[in-house]
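In the design runs reported in the main text, the only information available to the sequence generator was the tokenized backbone. The following block is the verbatim input for one such run; it is reproduced so that readers can re-run the procedure and compare outputs position by position.
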């Protein structure tokens, strides 16, 4: 059988650019070079698309890949059958692509934008399609779907950044009437805990709203759930399956960006330190919200399990979760018997099926 032409997209203009580079480094190093012809295409923070000419993927996290000799500007054509175009002087080089792995996190990467381009181009790709990606990226829309599907979740309220300047005190009064402190504040459309804060009083809440408003017009405010942070990986198209459950002990006040990617305070427990019947309930609810959103390929679904009574509470879903060497998605499936390289093979097969 001929090798499949696999285009790995990475980088992007979202606040999660750096996380994407680290995820892509791991993916590119673990793809089987005997099975796949690999076309690594990076998107700079300025939005330039570059076909990376090198094979040393350790250059990605530092940004050195951008200046590699032989790099060419590139684009995926929305015209069906054109595939990946790269530009060498006045010449255009065309490569037919069998499947794309968009290792892109956040805005313009997992919000349906790139997925729409690939749909137009007629190129199969890893991960949920346009509608599921767009809805899952917006945490407030995800919560509406979860409510409709009967998935238990934290109480929440939507705040709009455009109203903060003129109505801040009214908004704060309304939030204090609805919630007891502490509360969590999140931009509706970011991942990797970018812009997320925990507020213990009115002044901290004011600052957290302003901080979240830097990243998104829509801001989600949620009640605090006192529980373990439990994550489960889901994979599949029409018959999705969930991994074993994992637990994150952040070692910090909450599992923020620093705890995820910078400091070494967080500890992962696989399997999670919860009773088996509760773990099964988490897996069932993970598949339920995955299916309700219409996800394909993969997603990681995050929950809280309360300390007091082991109540399972849905937190959020990530349609293109991290794939770094320390990311939970590949670690959860490794613990379920599917090592990293075979996991990538399965995801590419699911993309071609979908």
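Verbatim output:
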């Amino acid at each position: 059988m001929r090798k499949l032409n696999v285009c790995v997209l990475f980088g992007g203009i979202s606040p999660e650019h750096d996380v994407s580079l680290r995820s892509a480094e791991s993916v590119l190093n673990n793809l089987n070079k005997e099975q796949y012809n690999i076309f690594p295409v990076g998107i700079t923070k300025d939005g330039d698309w570059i076909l990376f000419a090198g094979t040393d993927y350790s250059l990605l996290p530092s940004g050195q890949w951008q200046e590699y000799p032989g790099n060419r500007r590139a684009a995926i054509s929305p015209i069906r059958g054109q595939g990946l175009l790269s530009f060498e002087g006045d010449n255009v080089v065309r490569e037919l692509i069998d499947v794309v792995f968009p290792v892109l996190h956040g805005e313009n990467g997992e919000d349906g934008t790139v997925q729409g381009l690939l749909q137009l181009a007629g190129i199969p790709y890893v991960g949920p399609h346009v509608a599921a990606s767009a809805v899952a990226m917006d945490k407030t829309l995800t919560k509406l779907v979860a409510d409709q599907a009967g998935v238990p979740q934290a109480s929440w309220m939507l705040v709009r950044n455009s109203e903060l300047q003129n109505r801040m005190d009214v908004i704060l009064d309304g939030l204090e009437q609805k919630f007891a402190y502490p509360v969590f504040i999140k931009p509706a459309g970011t991942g990797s805990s970018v812009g997320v804060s925990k507020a213990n009083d009115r002044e901290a809440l004011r600052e957290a709203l302003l901080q979240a408003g830097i990243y998104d017009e829509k801001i989600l405010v949620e009640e605090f759930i006192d529980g373990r942070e439990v994550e489960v990986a889901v994979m599949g198209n029409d018959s999705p399956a969930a991994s074993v459950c994992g637990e994150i002990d952040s070692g910090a006040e909450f599992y923020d960006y620093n705890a995820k990617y910078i400091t070494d305070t967080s500890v992962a427990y696989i399997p999670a330190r919860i009773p088996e019947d509760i773990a099964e309930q988490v897996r069932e609810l993970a598949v339920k919200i995955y299916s309700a959103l219409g996800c394909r390929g993969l997603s990681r679904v995050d929950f809280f399990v309360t300390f007091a009574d082991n109540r399972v509470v849905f937190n959020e879903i990530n349609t293109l979760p991290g794939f770094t060497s320390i990311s939970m998605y590949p670690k959860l499936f490794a613990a379920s018997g599917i090592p990293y390289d075979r996991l990538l093979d399965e995801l590419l097969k699911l993309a071609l099926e979908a």
